[in-house]
Design goal:
CATH superfamily: MetI-like
Family: Belongs to the binding-protein-dependent transport system permease family.
Subcellular location: Cell membrane
CATH architecture: Orthogonal Bundle
Pfam families: BPD_transp_1
CATH topology: MetI-like fold
CATH class: Mainly Alpha
Radius of gyration: 30 Å
Strand content: under 5%
Keywords: Cell membrane, Membrane, Transmembrane, Transmembrane helix, Transport
Number of domains: 1
Order of helices and strands: HHHHHHHHHHH
Largest sheet: none
Helix content: over 70%
Oligomer: single chain
Membrane topology: Multi-pass membrane protein
Structural class: mainly alpha
């Protein structure tokens, strides 16, 4: 009898000490886990990124209104804005932007396609490396501006030499970065793919090319920046439209305000395409966590 009482008291104590049972369908609130860097409070990054350009324009305006920077040397921000509004109202600036964008994107498409194709062939195969890499390393050291006379002889003075110059300038950064990305793929991942029995095509599609994608996007950013530099030089060659054409006309009449407008447009277009590449990086490299700064 005492044994039964002891057993029942132990079971009662065990039930009292046990945690309460959860309901059959518990509703647990979802909570988004953010990295520690995202939880910090302070000035928004957008405002901080704009601080530098705003400060630069403020110094420029101050130097202009005080006469330290004469208008003959460099027009003030107010004059530049009024000139930009006038050019936009007449339609000259939008037409010039469209023409320059068409040239830059056409040259980038041609040069980028050639550079990526050669990099993939050279990076994947030793025969391709032996046939291509030494030639590309040699040609990339030749200044692109020095090729303008030859391009004019070969293609004339129309649109072709301008696009060819941009294509040459943009092919090499993409080639170098894509080639380096392919050759820097982790060998452990390659061995794991072989262990899983992946074919060569599946290995290239699922392991090597995704591993080379970060370098490829870096090369694309470089190529976009260089395309604008090549465009500046290309549009000095008998251009009849484009931002460079406006700049050449302004130089003849010493219109520093129009020259600054053209330079600002070049900068803004470059910033816009760089922003697009950053968005591509966020979308295509979402699987690859990376350091974003302290």
């Amino acid at each position: 009898m005492s044994t039964a009482l002891d057993l029942s008291s132990r079971q009662a104590a065990t039930r009292a000490a046990a945690p309460p049972a959860l309901p059959e369908n518990p509703r647990i609130a979802r909570q988004r886990i953010l990295p520690a860097s995202a939880e910090r409070r302070g000035i928004p990054r957008g405002i901080r990124r704009m601080a530098g350009p705003v400060l630069l324009v403020g110094i420029w305006h101050l130097l202009s209104v005080t006469g330290t920077l004469p208008a003959e040397v460099l027009a003030g921000p107010g004059t530049v804005l009024s000139s930009a509004a006038k050019l936009w109202g007449t339609g000259e600036l939008p037409d010039a932007m469209v023409a320059s964008l068409r040239r830059a994107l056409s040259g980038l498409a041609i040069g980028g396609s050639i550079g990526v194709a050669l990099a993939v062939f050279s990076g994947l195969f030793r025969l391709g490396e032996d046939l291509i890499d030494s030639t590309m390393q040699m040609l990339r050291t030749v200044p692109n501006v020095a090729l303008i006379p030859l391009l004019i002889i070969w293609f004339g003075i129309g649109e072709e030499p301008k696009i060819a110059l941009i294509a040459l300038a943009t092919a090499f950064p993409l080639y170098l970065n894509v080639y380096a990305g392919i050759r820097n793929v982790d060998q452990t991942l390659v061995e794991a793919g072989r262990t899983l029995g992946l074919s060569r095509a599946a290995m290239i599609r699922n392991v090597i090319l995704p591993g080379a994608l970060p370098n490829a996007l870096v090369g694309l950013r470089y190529s976009l920046g260089i395309s604008w530099l090549a465009l500046v030089f290309g549009e000095q060659v008998n251009a009849t439209e484009g931002i460079g054409y406006l700049m050449s006309n302004a130089r003849e009449f010493f219109q520093t305000d129009v020259i600054v407008v053209c330079l600002v447009v070049y900068a803004l277009l470059g910033l816009a395409v760089d922003f697009i590449v950053r968005l591509l990086e966020k979308v295509l490299l979402a699987w690859r966590p990376a350091f974003t700064g302290a």
